[in-house]
Amino acid sequence: MEPLRTTDAFAIDFRKKFELGGKVIVVTGACGLVGRAFCEAISQFGGHVVAVDIPAAEPEKFAAVLEERHGRKMLGVSLNVGERAEVEQLKATILSNFDRIDGLVNAHQNKSHLKFESFECVTDDNWDTVVHINLKGTFLTCQILGSWMAENGGGSIINIPSTYSVVAPNQNLYKGTSLGCPAAYSASKGGIDALSRYLASYWASRKVRVNMITPHGVWNNHEAQFEENFARFSPMERLSYNHEVAGALIYLLSDASSYVTGDNMLVEGGWTVW
Ligand SMILES: NC(=O)c1ccc[n+]([C@@H]2O[C@H](COP(=O)([O-])OP(=O)(O)OC[C@H]3O[C@@H](n4cnc5c(N)ncnc54)[C@H](O)[C@@H]3O)[C@@H](O)[C@H]2O)c1
Fold first, then answer.
1. CA separation, residue 238 to residues 40, 51, 270 (Å)
2. Which end of the chain has fewer beta carbons closer than 10 Å to its terminal beta carbon, N or C?
3. Integer Cα distance of 139 and 5 in angstroms
4. For residue 2, what pLDDT is reported?
5. Whose alpha carbon is nearest atom 44 of ligand 1?
6. Sheet strand arrangement including 155-159
7. What's the CA-to-centroid distance between 145 and ligand 1, angstroms?
8. What is the mean pLDDT of residues 142-148?
């Protein structure tokens, strides 16, 4: 929607700027820790969610729950975001159900089946899988769904890099725990950051805004030692919660951020500030 050409603040309904009423928003990794909160938040602000995830996550069931909760049409689609033909089919399915796409949120991730192996032990296969799903999956959804938005009046894309594409992981964070952060994950997320900035510039004149949200340390029943270490290195002295990431999402998806593109909104409790 074109912004009102006015200097009269009284002419603006500021609450309405945050509404997503009638918008069709695609969320990949919809059944994950952060994706679930994103989908519920979009639903509460009036949007139609297209919940996308791998078959094992059963996004169709999740979409049915959202539809029941909110009394509005939702769609669940099982696929692998790394496969072009499957993302092409996704576009066709969305358009046959809704006739439009207003937003895309790439919240999928693959950290590899050997999540916390040391750098020296990373195999080609492991590296390729992480980069393929994280980076190529984001490229494919942006190209196939984003191009549709560019050709049809615009939209909003939110991609998810990582704190570890902004700064390196502090290895002390993992001391005494079974956790870590693989190099392929950081590298794939760095690619997502660069791709997002590229597309923000490339599509700005066609009204597709491309922004990023960087969550950090989202609590998921972590082992106690990790939570303790994390608190020591965090200015806010705690992990975050998935629902705390969703406020940034509603802002970036909605007209409230109509003049924002190419931004990476850090929801990281000040982790990179010192
Ligand atoms: N949780 C955190 O602390 C944190 C921090 C920084 C960034 N992030 C990023 O935020 C996003 C969401 O994180 P999360 O914690 O919810 O992750 P998660 O692992 O809980 O969820 C990821 C989802 O992606 C899905 N997925 C995996 N491969 C897929 C594929 N090939 N096609 C479609 N879907 C696929 C999974 O099934 C899962 O439901 C990710 O991009 C992650 O890298 C998370």
1. 24, 30, 11
2. C
3. 35
4. 83
5. 215
6. 75-78, 48-53, 24-28, 103-106, 155-159, 208-215, 264-267
7. 19
8. 98
Tokens (6 digits) for 227: 């939570």
φ/ψ of 122, rounded to 5, equals -70, 130
pTM (predicted TM-score)? 0.98
112: left (phi over 0), alpha (psi -120 to 50) or beta: left
End-to-end CA distance of the chain: 39
Sorted by where each starts, the structural domains of the chain and their CATH numbers stand as 13-267 (3.40.50.720)
Which residue minimizes the CA distance to atom 19 of ligand 1? 32
- Which residue has tokens 């922004």? 211
Q: Is 225 helix (H, G, I), strand (E, B) or coil?
A: helix
pLDDT per residue as tens digits for the range 233-261 = 999 999 999 999 999 999 999 999 999 99
Phi, psi dihedral angles at 211 (to 5 degrees):
-130, 175
Helices (H), 152-219: 163-166, 183-203
Q: Token pair of 26, please?
A: 């695609």
Exposure on the CB side of residue 28, measured as CA atoms within 13 A = 29
Query: 264-267 and 155-159 as β-strands: parallel, antiparallel, unpaired?
Result: unpaired
Query: What is the CA angle 98-53-41, rounded to 5?
Result: 65
Ligand 1 centre to CA of 107 (Å) is: 5
